[in-house]
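To the structural biology subgroup,

Please find below the input and predicted structure for uroporphyrinogen-III C-methyltransferase, which we are adding to the shared reference set this quarter. The sequence is reproduced verbatim from the submission form. If anyone notices a discrepancy with their own records, reply to this email rather than editing the shared folder directly, so we keep one authoritative version.
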Amino acid sequence: MNKGKVYLVGAGPGDAGLITLKGIRAIQLADCIVYDFHINPRLLTYAKDGAEFIYAGKRGGHHEMTQDEINRVLVEKAKEGKIVCRLKGGDPFVFGRGGEEVEILYEEGIEFEIIPGVSSVIAVPAYAGIPVTHRKIASAFTVITGNEDLSKQDRIFTHIRASNAPETMIFLMCVKNLDTITSKLIQEGLKPETPSAIIRWGTRPEQKIVTGTISEIAHLAKEHKISPPAILVIGDVVGLREKLNWYEKKPLHGHRVLITRHLTDEYLILEDMGAELFVFPTIDFLPPEDFTDLDRAIEKIGDYSFIVFPSPRAVKFFFERFLSLGKDMRDLKGVLICAVGRETAKNLKNYGINADIIPEEYNSEAMAKLLKVEIYRFGQNEKIRALYPCSDIALKGFSEEMEKAGIQVDAPITYRTVKPTEHGKRLVRFLREGKITIATFTSPSSFNNLIDILKDDAKKMLNEVAIAVIGKTTAKAVEGAGYKVSIMPEKSTIKDMVEAIIRWVQQK
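Predicted structure (tokenized):
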């Protein structure tokens, strides 16, 4: 039997940046990813094409899968010869039942690897500006699960009193038993005025922190409607929060930005400034079902005066086919290469090509004007031909402009657009709960596809969301559907849109 392998991966407490490099590598290798509720969905964007996703989370006490069912899936997928990534919140061995899952794998003779994660035990207090130890305040810390029946335990912190050492106590999964925990601690001798903090959704945009003495924290938590997931930190280190609080001071803290295309580096500055990115491409790209027209154009590539690449995808899919047919860059000698947008020009450089023409305005109308000027380089009587490798839903405006100028345009379908729906349920939930604050759209299709996915609930879900767009055409599609565009940069680039989002938030 061909047995696969299971990677047990700790994904950290929520901030996507807290996963390890080795954890990302396991996600990239996986044929199947079994993930929990607390996983930041952005981590799933590292998965390879065709990877299978299995949701095994628990929310509000409701289990999507029982532990026995999770164990069975891990075994079954591995025995099918697949690489499985079991993606768990925090660290898999810190109150994460990771040990139980690995025992089953061992008994079944399945190869496994443990990839530790950043535990909420240290990360969540750190994001709240609370160090769990401090040379002058606390020399140790204790981690205790708070979801067991603590009333049946004789003592919670006997060892602390015995050592007579200053120590920090951290209770995980503590909301349900908060009254019991704090009452018992005071009964056992902890001073009622001991500082404490309860932290909900630590490291995420929803992070909420309530501080107070141990005698009042349970009441304060109820007053501020603190619900799971949350942890309780007890000790004098809580007093450092006033000085060390840093995460909530980031300019974009509290914002979750919806990215409706594949993530690129230009968006990451939003994360640097405190926002969380929810990556949900409403458009995916595939090769054409029929290569006849594209192959015909490639075979006569030397007959063209220009090749106009409208997007990075056009570059990628064109050259994949171009090279697969045995062509190389020498076949492009004498052909002017035009790029719509800096990102498109950047992708051309990956193939060793510097674009000859890049318009200052990144749209097809501006490109058409530039090409009209270039016509004179070929003489008035010479027949000018342009190749325009485009998508199956490309607008005809560019081709029509070229035809008016006397340029013959061939526009073979070079790639297709499709609508992915993976993880759509989580996006719908985030929108319903008001967890998306800004939605970005880079084309009419990215917007229209999202509306189609949301269906009748779209209007209600997007009502309180600020919409950012690239280009007048996208803005027209959004406004034509009855929505307001709040953010639109002068230049139609992702970089400019990101900068416009930052300015918009800072002006609010």
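Summary notes: The radius of gyration is 28 Å. The chain has four domains: 5-118, 122-248, 256-283+419-507, 286-417.

Regards,
Lab coordination
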